[in-house]
Amino acid sequence: MTNQLKRSLGLWAAVAAAVGIVVSSSAMVSLGEGFGIGGQGFIFAMVFALVLNLCVAFTFAELSGILPRAGGLNRYTLPAMGSFIGMIAVISGYVLVTIFAGSAEAGIAGLVFSEVFSIEINSTIISISAVVILGLVNIFGVKFFSWTQIVLTTLLIASTVILGIIGLTGIGSGEPLSYSLDFNPMGWGVLSLTALAFWLFVGIEFVTPLAEEIKKPKVYIPLSMVLGLGIIFAADLLFGFAAIKYVSLNNLAESASPHVVAAEAILGQTGLMWMGIVTVLATASTLNTLISAISRMLFAMGQEGEMPKVFSSLNRWGAPWAAIFFLCILFVSFLLIGITNSSSITTFILAGCLCWMIAYIVAHLNVIILRFKYPNVKRGFKSPFGITFQVLGITGMLYIIFNIFPDPEIKAQIYKYTIVFLAITVIYAIWWIKFVMKKKLFETIPLEDLLDESSTEIENESPDAKENFNI
């Protein structure tokens, strides 16, 4: 058994991984609600959110260009701020988010499948079956993940675009609204919807933990994130404008599943069934990406001694089986407990997403610190205009954090849960680093050591892989 990952993913597989978590069921809900509240003017919030996520893409592309290895943010933080900050960013910003968001997505799939297709099977059983199937897909290695993700992403994006075109051209069976809408009824106030628009793109960096399995990481990783953002923006724009052509803004804003309402208004029962399939595909794509990317973060943390060593083990297909099994057990446990059906699940997820924003701030700070600490290191990709995009990104994240939700009471609950998430992570990180790793909290690892480690691991790979890895 080897602990070395294999390079086998091409560009489209990288794009599919980049958009895998972005095209989620919750993102479809955010899209419908955003257009319902802001009308056509929601496009301004979408553009603002797109710019902030381009900052994220540039930052992660540069970090991955320095260290094109599995592990993502935790690996990049080691030479900049050390294990303590890296563990807090990854565990609170990714692992905890995955527990709630992944379980919720699985729950949505079960409910939609049962309701839309009138299947008389308990929705929890359907949800657990989806987790088990996608867990097995990932257990059989990155090629199985790649094939599955490419199919899911292609079908999902194509369905969203086609439904949007049908709605905008009016060739469906539905009747468009008979009255016209003001383009931007909220004026500049539409920018207050940026936090809602941001979730349409969040997670584009999930391609970076697969860096050791992508054929040309220094080219394909930045390209896949930029292409992914463009594809998502275009698809969401088409469907969003089609939705408000057939459904009143109030109905979209107040619906718990506005994307389903819009699809039914555009194509009747056919649209309802179609969007039911799209919702299930979105959930499958999200779960598939979460299991693949987060397991590789845990794999890298196991290698660095920041998690139990078993997480660094690979099976015969080159998959981090222990980390995959651990995540699937968590998903199933939360589904059985029923927390994903709790009335406060949205608050839990938003609290986790706030932690995600903190993780993004850490990533931007990593780039700034490494620019000054290692100005001459070779970078496969360098974010343009100095650290402009990093400063802009940090400013934007702080704006979103302070405007996470319009209702003050729910906003306070989100902050409360965020503090709990961070407290749990901080306690674990301090205990593990001080008593298990026996290191200083802010002790960094020299970048040269990480580069030497990467170079040593690449020696046994194919000549093509060595060329692609060349630092």
TrEMBL record:
<dbReference type="Pfam" id="PF13520">
    <property type="entry name" value="AA_permease_2"/>
</dbReference>
<protein>
    <submittedName>
        <fullName>Amino acid/polyamine/organocation transporter, APC superfamily</fullName>
    </submittedName>
</protein>
<feature type="transmembrane region" description="Helical">
    <location>
        <begin position="76"/>
        <end position="101"/>
    </location>
</feature>
<feature type="transmembrane region" description="Helical">
    <location>
        <begin position="152"/>
        <end position="174"/>
    </location>
</feature>
<keyword id="KW-0812">Transmembrane</keyword>
<feature type="transmembrane region" description="Helical">
    <location>
        <begin position="384"/>
        <end position="402"/>
    </location>
</feature>
<feature type="transmembrane region" description="Helical">
    <location>
        <begin position="414"/>
        <end position="433"/>
    </location>
</feature>
<feature type="transmembrane region" description="Helical">
    <location>
        <begin position="272"/>
        <end position="299"/>
    </location>
</feature>
<keyword id="KW-0472">Membrane</keyword>
<keyword id="KW-1133">Transmembrane helix</keyword>
<dbReference type="InterPro" id="IPR002293">
    <property type="entry name" value="AA/rel_permease1"/>
</dbReference>
<feature type="transmembrane region" description="Helical">
    <location>
        <begin position="345"/>
        <end position="372"/>
    </location>
</feature>
<feature type="transmembrane region" description="Helical">
    <location>
        <begin position="186"/>
        <end position="207"/>
    </location>
</feature>
<dbReference type="GO" id="GO:0022857">
    <property type="term" value="F:transmembrane transporter activity"/>
</dbReference>
<feature type="transmembrane region" description="Helical">
    <location>
        <begin position="121"/>
        <end position="140"/>
    </location>
</feature>
<feature type="transmembrane region" description="Helical">
    <location>
        <begin position="42"/>
        <end position="64"/>
    </location>
</feature>
<dbReference type="InterPro" id="IPR050367">
    <property type="entry name" value="APC_superfamily"/>
</dbReference>
<dbReference type="GO" id="GO:0005886">
    <property type="term" value="C:plasma membrane"/>
</dbReference>
<feature type="transmembrane region" description="Helical">
    <location>
        <begin position="219"/>
        <end position="244"/>
    </location>
</feature>
<keyword id="KW-1003">Cell membrane</keyword>
<feature type="transmembrane region" description="Helical">
    <location>
        <begin position="319"/>
        <end position="339"/>
    </location>
</feature>
